[in-house]
Specification:
Blueprint: H1 8-14, H2 16-31, H3 36-50, H4 53-65, H5 70-75, H6 87-100, H7 108-117, H8 120-143
Helix pairs in contact: 1-2, 2-8, 3-4, 3-6, 3-8, 6-7, 6-8
Length: 157
């Protein structure tokens, strides 16, 4: 079991300008009108690829709060084999994976699929969301931020 080198809350104090910049960048795609559930799936998938436990847990919990179907959360790691994802979600997930793993650049096929589902502006903002989560993943993985604990269910009255 690995131990945190520092924590997420420490990062806010150590580098508040970097924190604020990354937070703002990560919010732009939703402010531009991209679907928040789709963005959470993309952020979750990139976080899985990058091995950032903190970010995986953060985006699972956030996805649950905004109503992402639990089946999608369970299947996002194998989205290509799961028919539950829409063509737009598939294009976004393929785009996120391609931007997260760049050894060969972005193929014409993936670009064509993404640009067929997203306008030029949407694709720019989707890219900003992927860039942002990849940056967060680098901090979370480097410092081994401790994943959040799932909040306990509210006690029945």
């Amino acid at each position: 079991m690995s131990h945190a080198r520092s924590e997420y809350e420490d990062f806010k104090k150590i580098a508040p300008d970097v924190y604020d910049l990354l937070l703002a960048l990560g919010q732009l795609a939703a402010k531009a009108g991209l679907d928040k559930q789709l963005l959470e799936l993309v952020k979750l998938r990139a976080s899985q690829i990058n091995g950032c436990a903190f970010c995986v847990q953060h985006h699972v919990l956030l996805s649950e709060r905004i109503g992402v179907p639990v089946d999608k959360l369970h299947l996002v790691a194998v989205w290509r084999e799961a028919p539950i994802f829409s063509p737009r979600e598939r294009a976004a997930l393929a785009w996120a994976e391609a931007l997260t793993c760049l050894p060969d650049g972005i193929s014409e096929e993936i670009y064509a699929e993404a640009s067929g589902e997203f306008s030029e502006t949407e694709l720019a903002y989707l890219t900003s969301a992927v860039v942002s989560i990849n940056a967060w993943n680098r901090f979370g993985a480097a410092f081994r931020w401790t994943p959040a604990v799932r909040p306990a269910a509210a006690a029945a009255s």
